[in-house]
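Supplementary Note 3. Input sequence used for the single-chain structure prediction.
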Amino acid sequence: MTDALAQRMADRLKALTEEDRIALNEGQIAESERQHAAFTAAFSEGRCSVCGDGLDVFDEKTPCLHWFLRPAGVKKKHYPAVAQAFGMMSIQSWMRWVANEGGWAKNIADTADDDHVVQVTARYGDYAWSISCGNSDFAGHSGKNSSFPHYHVQMSIKDRPFISYSDFHFRIHDDELTILKAMAASGVKSKFIHGESFDDLMAAVEPEWVVNLPIDRDGNQSGAPFKMDTMLIAEPGTSMSGDDIYNLIERAKREGVTFASLAHTIPNVSVQTIVSEGPGVIDPAPREGGRGTRRKEQ
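The predicted structure, written as discrete structure tokens, is reproduced below.
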């Protein structure tokens, strides 16, 4: 039944005119904007936009997404109730929104490959969450507790494990399963408005944009989202001046710009800059035995 419904939904998506597709996207974006505005307003006040309670409130009778911030009283055994009340994509969207409250994009890693429906890691302060749904999980592989479509969650607090991937097999809700299958059949990709990851950012921007970003004048690079390696190659028959390079480094510091953005001013050199994730970008947390996909340099 789920497969047949998913196929009908996929067929309808494929049959949309460009005008209808644009209108559908605009409507979904507007609704996401509305929900995110409510989320940020509540979060800034220490409240949960879902249940209305404080983020530090635990009511066992009302499972809620903010339990992933582990208010006092929440134990590991309580999280299946959250998964039952909320779908995998809703949980993922909430985690992404929270993570981006701590710094846009750099706190989320999307590393799903051809073997995964979802593989995402997000962090906020002392908390880190990962959701993993491999193709075999999505299909419901053999096993007493895994013969149904499911996903896994990992959670750590202050780098100490609290929930492991192997602790639970959270069932994917039927309606969500239908939507995900329809999206796969129609080629539609999930977009998380205000939940963009570092990988989304790297795919959307040109290296030149990164090179021309301002930098922290105090020299603290521990939270930097980007790392830039710049190579200077002297043209044939010429040489580079060490003094020119040193002076340019000092100028970049004074002006609060990257060395790479000024490197072209050194005479008789060609410049190549490789942009990759910096020390402030979250590391992916793949499941044991899985491929720890690394991001590509630009």
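The first strand starts at residue 108 and ends at 110. The mean pLDDT is 88.
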